[in-house]
Amino acid sequence: MKDIRETETSSGDEKGEGISRRDLLTAGGAALVVPFVFTPGGEGAKAAIVPGSGAVGAYIKIDTTNTVTVVIGATEMGQGILTGLSQLVAEELNLNWPQVRAEHAPASTLWPNPYGNPLFGAQLTGGSTSTRGWYAPLRQAAAIARDTLIAAAGKQFGGVWTLGQGGALRKGTSRVLFSSVVVTASGLTPPTTAALATTTRFIGKSMPRLDVPSKTDGSAVFGMDVKVPGMKFGSTIHAPVQGGKVKTMPATSGGARLYNLGTAVGVLADDTWTAIQLARGAASQITWDVPTDPNAADSAALAAHAQQLMTSPTASVFVAEVVGSPRIPPAARSIDVTYSLPFMAHATMEVMNCTANVTPTSCEIWAPTQGQQFIPGLAASITGLPADAVTVHTTLLGGGLGRKFETDYVAEAVNLSKQAGVPVKLIWSREEDFKNDYYRPSALIRVQAAVGSAGLGITNMIYRNVSPSINIQRGTLSGNNPEDTGAVAGAVGLPYRMGARRIEYVPLLPCDVRLGYWRSVGESYNTFAVESAIDELALVAGRDPMEFRKGLVGGTGGSPRSLRVLKALETLTNWSVPPPAGQARGMAFLSGFGSFIAMAADVAQSTAGQMVVKKVYCAIDCGVAVNPGAIETQIQGGIAHGISATLWGGMNFVKGKPQVQNFNHYRMLKLNEMPQVAVTVVPSSFAPGGVGETGVPCVAPALANAWAKLTGTRVRNLPFYPGATMGDG
Amino acid sequence: MATYTLNVNGQSQTVTVANGDMPLLWVLRDHLGLTGTKYGCGIEVCGACTVLVNGQPEKSCDMSVKEAVGRKILTVEGLAQDVDGAKAQAAWVAHQVPQCGFCQSGMLMSTVGEMKAGNHGSSIRPNNLCVCGTYARIKEATQTL
Ligand code: FES
Ligand code: FES
User: Fold this and answer.
1) Across all residues in chain A, what is the average pLDDT?
2) What is the A41 CA–ligand 2 centroid distance (Å)?
3) Which atom belonging to ligand 1 lies closest to the Cα atom of B44?
4) Would the pLDDT of A373 be above 90?
5) Chain-chain contact of B98 with A216 (C-beta, under 8 angstroms)
6) Which residues contact A453 (CB under 8 A, 6 or more apart)?
7) Selecting from 3.30.365.10, 3.40.50.300, 3.40.50.1100, 3.40.50.880, what CATH number does the domain A2-217 have?
8) Does domain A298-344+439-711 fall into CATH 3.40.50.2300?
9) Burial A362-380 (b: 16+ CB within 10 A, else e)
10) For residue A729, is pLDDT > 70?
């Protein structure tokens, strides 16, 4: 198996416009350039080989050793996307796994972006969309490549050739390798469509990940590991409070020059440690312009404001979904409960970092990024160079979780390199990373709902989410669509059969805490409220939570896929048999990210009275499961992430100041606390759904539901144990 | 400026740094180019920077370069040369442990340190942080060691 080396440290790699065949040929290889251009607007995919065209993206490269490299527009951040998408190409080309490699695509400045996710066009990785977006188009592109190679063999050697195994073509007993016909192939006009393979040598198989060997011997290149000749090591310091800008600063500190980056001050040194020390040392000499209202970035003040908006008749309410006129009857058959969740930091294992080399004519960037689409334009605006003078190499990511969708750290590196005139590797200290996140919004959610007299259905629901809006803060809401759909994701379009309902969103304004997309985004808070409330309603109805949910998705007009997943969880848990004495089981369900997922947790109480998670069960229907092993690990990871967030997670702000600065005060799950996990991937022939985020949302409600059953105490405010430290437990 | 001679992965390496208090982590990464050892917290909490020093796991963010002189340092880049290290690496691949992989150098070094202390199977429990939550696979992999 070949491991992958993401990052070239020399210049002159192919640019965003795609592959120049001449370059590849002179490099001793040959490329079959199978471009695939997506047209946003739903026209779907077009695939074609455009000989000699500079304006295409390449997806498949075949070199003289017959190694096939799949060039992938999505970012590898641990979810296994380089492997999963390569499996699709391997299937269509009938390859052998050891000859397969994967690499990240360059950032493209074209629109349509040839490396953009076909679901939405842009070259971004997030929302559990990569397999969903690329599955059909990449298979189609690979199938076209296959048919073109077959035709090329016919042209070059005469006769009718068929596909062999391992990157070969056959005619009778003759066999030629792809590498010997690839030059001919790239001169042919490819077919516009090709039949997909009917084999299943790779799709549906837990192929070993292409990036794993390099992640066990230190050779994997993360952003932080990039080496560029002549580079300096940089670090930056930011305002102590949210939203600060540099007001005054000395020219030097500790003998080193300081660089004004607008919202940060940078410093360079011969190693990272010295740079971090210098940046810290400079902190007291810098003054900052800070936002005028300290309460706009104060957790307690924001929470009080949210409480006020929850009941205020004058709050500006976006109604995200409405059916009929819901009315909540008196208590006997209804609930009126309020849940709250804190701001969350991403705390990716790899801190923000970026390497940039700005020269008078070029800008080369090595970044651990989920947001390639934004980078060429951003770097162009900082450097004054045209966007096509910007080259972006995507490194491996030491975790993304939504944080590396942002480009603040990229801008700092480019700015530093431009001002200093040398290549710069910028690495933030962990403290700067915690203090300068794009935090998951806090949320206050009230659910009023009623069950019918037979206790079978939800007759009425009024749901109000009051939380700061990512989209309003960024100005990305369009005027004619005022609903912040991200803010209510997980609360709208529920698969449950329901009567009258109104799902409302009230943006909490003003909010100066910088907001962003945290693994599972809206579902990370709404699913907690919805699935906790469903359990509370089941209790009111006197029904078992599994039976209650099955009733809500079953029957005519129900959701068969939801029902199937709930039944799979029922089987997996042996639901009718309770967990061992001293434990209780809770469950939750989510239809989201194009997938269906049901989760149950068995919990116990420690001698200190705290929750111990014993076992978590998960059934998922994510459509065609390209790599079941990778899906299982994503679910395991989502569960660990969800437990950390539920029990301990949260970032508190006091007058603009983030209160957590390092992992010692950001308690996360440790190995000896990892519960047993049982995952069932439900066989499914539906189009692939998302996976990366689906493991997170159900954890919090499943744990809270289990805890309520075990102790009789309903926890509606997360986290369970605020203020925990890594020293605990 | 001070010059130190270190023994890293069986080789003698000389480095000149401004300050002998500089943590071994940054000497390895920035001065010796051994970037397999990772920075996660810098305060001895996460374990991403773990290396073996005379066979024992040490957090290299908290060991100064001057303290490291005269000791045998093993990093993830040298792991394959070590019998236990090679076994642990093979188990990590067989069980497909890494997700993002950023914590895994430290996980492997802690694991190998525990093996050298005489631990086997379920008694190997690296206390390092993995934000990706690879713990289930780590347990499976260490079970075979
Ligand atoms: S970087 Fe040394 S323990 Fe975290
Ligand atoms: S594998 Fe990503 S932090 Fe452990």
Assistant:
1) 90
2) 37
3) 3
4) yes
5) yes
6) A333
7) 3.30.365.10
8) no
9) ebbbbbbbbbbbbbbebbb
10) no
